[in-house]
Amino acid sequence: MTVPSESSPQREPQQRRSRDRQGAMADAAGRLLIEEGFEAITHRRVADAASVPQGSASYYFPSRAALVAASVRAAEGLRAASAETFSRSLEPGRRSSPEAAELVIRTLFAPRVDDRVVATRLDPMLTALRDPALRPLMAEHRPRLLGSVRRTLEASGYATVTDVDLVAHLVDASLLTAAATGEEQVIRRAAAVLARYLDAVG
């Protein structure tokens, strides 16, 4: 009896199913991270979200650290892809600085953002940046995100604002400050700060 080799045709469908299942769980983990934060990243929650048996989550991601890493990579990939889609969808035209600033915030925190953005999105991102194992995963998609910010600024009439990395840092700081002063209108408060910068340099 011949045992199929690792690369035999008989094993290809099984390997493809394994890759698909692992990818589905990573995608589900990424969406959970975006929607609910790190507390949602458990084997049970990810398995439920991916509609796979819980044992599969533990098999493909033996530790929570591995599951968290997969969730961060997937979340940042989704964020970058959504930012590109959002920025490319904008109709060109000169916008007011507060309007442009809010679009920049919505670009950076695509696919969706609301006034809970600091608790649900920014705090988990900062937590990941503080972890040496997760920091490189956060950096993977940074160029794509900054490219999307540049497109949003250009589409809004602020092509002269060239330091998009500084803009992204200013967004984070403005959101943190706005959230510290209250739960209401966090995005609008942060956009007002960024608008002052756009007025000064744009």
Question: Overview of this structure, please?
Answer:
The structure is a single chain. 72% of the residues lie in helices and 0% in strands. It has helices spanning 12-36, 43-50, 54-60, 64-89, 97-108, 117-130, 135-140, 142-155, 164-180, 186-201. Helix 1 (12-36) packs across helix 4, helix 2 crosses helix 3 (54-60) and helix 9 (164-180) runs antiparallel to helix 10 (186-201).
Radius of gyration in whole Å, from Cα? 20 Å
H/E element sequence: HHHHHHHHHH
Distance between the termini: 74 Å
Number of helices, counting only DSSP H or I runs of 4 residues or more: 10
Low-confidence stretches: none
What does the largest sheet look like?
none
Number of strand elements: 0
Give descriptors for this structure.
single chain; 202 residues; mainly alpha; 10 helices; 0% strand; elongated
Task: Please specify the SSE layout and strand pairing.
Blueprint: H1 12-36, H2 43-50, H3 54-60, H4 64-89, H5 97-108, H6 117-130, H7 135-140, H8 142-155, H9 164-180, H10 186-201
In short:
The chain is built from 10 helices and no strands.
